[in-house]
Amino acid sequence: MHVFITGGTGTIGSAVVAELLGNGHTVLALARSDGSARALEGAGAEVLRGDLADLGALRSGAARCDGVISLAFGRDYSSPDALARAIAEEGDALATLGRELIGSDRPIVTVSGTPWVPGRASTEADPLPTDGPVGGRGRSVNALLDLTSQGVRSAAVRMPRTVHHQGRGGFAGLLVDAARRTGVAGYPGDGAQRWPAVHALDAAVLFRLVLESAPAGTAWHAVADEGDAVRDIATVIGRRLGLPVETVPEETFGPFGPIFAMDQPASSAHTRDALGWQPTHPGLLEDLENVQP
């Protein structure tokens, strides 16, 4: 399959590109900079220059391929307004890619977060939130899945709060960044809240499986660790950086503060049973041992 991918140089995207190329697929990857283009070409992908706001480039890429994986997302999370702009940009991109595939029965796989359900681990059957700080992502993903009635084999891979590789990535990576900035390995609340996690290389396998075989209109959970306590995550970070570990105000983490404070475990039992996906790489707490002082 010739696959168009956006976000192909990120923590998840670079692993997905390698996974696709290593399993007989070819890749056309969107690149917004010379550095990204060089990295993608070095990995063996063909490059299409443009960014997520370049809707013409997105239409061109989708038209040239047998399937699409959409991973790109803005990098500015400095304020609620910046996060809202990134979510809106992603929504416009998904709508554009989906429209290009109408009537083709070609697959498109997008990404979202696992939902949170009070009192239990969320499952693939739980709906995404469509209000709150990230509700726009849920609405965009739902709209893409609704295109199944128009001949699009759309599917969503829901990612946990931390997608990690060599001690970097996801919400845990933001905790590391905050610890280095403030001199404290902090966590909001009492730290008992749980975050699900997955290694980027395991997530990449799931994206490939969903692209190749998932039924239209389905959602899947890329969850290896159902829920690590945030206090335990901060404890490893503090030990690796030689910093004190303590509770800090939610505001320390900017617009993500309220999300960081939530208990949000997630299950991937259905995904494993239905697609045969089995994570094999280190869990989050083990992988955080790679954080460098």
Automatic annotation (TrEMBL):
Please name the SUPFAM superfamilies in this protein's record: NAD(P)-binding Rossmann-fold domains (SSF51735)
UniProt cross-references to Pfam families, sorted A to Z: Epimerase
Sequence ranges assigned to domain NAD-dependent epimerase/dehydratase in this UniProt record = 3-214
Reading the lineage from the top rank, the first entry is: Bacteria
Q: Which InterPro entries match?
A: Epimerase_deHydtase (IPR001509), NAD(P)-bd_dom_sf (IPR036291), NAD(P)-dependent_oxidoreduct (IPR051783)
Q: Where is this region: Disordered?
A: 113-135
Q: Which PANTHER family match?
A: NAD(P)-BINDING DOMAIN-CONTAINING PROTEIN-RELATED, PROTEIN YEEZ
Name it: SDR family oxidoreductase
Which organism encodes this protein? Streptantibioticus silvisoli
Where is the organism placed in the taxonomic lineage, from the top? Bacteria, Bacillati, Actinomycetota, Actinomycetes, Kitasatosporales
